[in-house]
Design brief:
Helix content is about 35%, strand content about 20%. It is an alpha+beta fold. It has four domains: about 110 residues, Alpha-Beta Plaits (2-Layer Sandwich); about 60 residues, 3-Layer(aba) Sandwich (MutS, DNA mismatch repair protein, domain I); about 50 residues; about 160 residues, Dna Ligase, domain 1, CATH 3.30.1490. The strands form three sheets. A five-stranded mixed sheet has the order 5-6-1-7-8. A hairpin with a 4-residue loop joins strand 10 and strand 11. The longest helix has 19 residues. It is globular. It starts with 11 loop residues before the first strand and ends in a 30-residue tail after the last helix.
Amino acid sequence: MNDIFSPRPSTVLYVDINSCFATIEQQANPLIRGKPVVVAAYATGNGCILASSIESKRLGIKTGMHVREAQVISRDLTVLTPDPEKYRHVNVLLKNILSVYTDVVEVYSIDEMSLDVSKDPYFFRVSEGIQSVDASFAYARKIKERIRKEIGEWIRVSIGISTNVYLGKVASDIQKPDGCTAIIKENVVETLKKLSVEDLCGIKKGYGNRLRSSGMQTAYDMYRSTQDILIRAFGSKIGRDWWLRLHGFTEGDRVYREEQKTYGQSHALYIPKTPSDPETLSVLSQLVYKMARRLRETYSGASGVSLSCVFSGHESWQKSRTLSHSISSSDDFYKAVLLLLNQAPSLPIRILAVSCFGMVSGNSVQEGLFDTRERKDSLTHALDIIGRKWGDDALMSARALTGSSKVLDRIPFGRAGLKN
């Protein structure tokens, strides 16, 4: 039974833009092509690197490093801050290209999408007389060519081919930065033997330890295990989902991502300010607005808020609060977080961060006793529409404009980074 592999044709393509932010910046500016480039939250030494170009990665500069660490490795490093609208524009262009072949394009993040080319009306003409995987390679070549022509010659993508999305994702990671790899029945064993359990998307340290304690060191060890063994190893029925994924089946098929449990925003103040300073309140308002709008793209509200401060002396302070009812509007979030800020020590704040938790969906947001709920929801919806079209800074509360600090737009990981 463990040698079973999905009989579906290998027509799922998983497309991944390599070193996305940095590559897009190189496409936009030919002068930095072929040179080490990073995109960092801030261009200062303490800035955290969000994306490293292919050239930077070859030097050992990785995502998560501080800028000053990377500058020690490469004195010629180009450091840029994010340009979210540029990245979203490329995301739209890529989706438009893939949509030529099927009406259903799954978007997983700003730089990752999948499609099933068998849904293309012309697929059977393309695949006539050849195996489905060979037809998929032909589609992959056409997609790469269109990307170079319609988005830019410097944009390189890795494409994975398989019978389901998950193995397509795994395949896309095998040959970077500009490869095209298939995982099919004929090579799945050989491929999975080369991958540790932690190499699989969705297997982090916790699950990795559980799998290793059950005698599984490689992805192939998981592949050759029975469903019952995997269920016991994971401690839940998701072990069955993993069996199906690795064997190429589509039931429960998805790129494994944990449900987002919190939404947050942070900002480093150029000049530290105390909690009661108008500059701090302005930053707080901007952070809350961006956090709340991101939340509302997926959920209808949240039932808890948290505030964190790092002071100029490097001391830290954090406070959370579970609310009596769920909220969704930016104004309600601001009032809730402000109560926490009022409890913070009166010390100069260097980094201010807000987050919300306890997500609710549908119509679960409760109405306060004196809320004019319908009117507030209509206003919030209208502001979100304007924000999507013209950017978060198109309309801001008066309190957000009282300070000189501007909280920059950021691209979070996953679907939350996308705007409709």
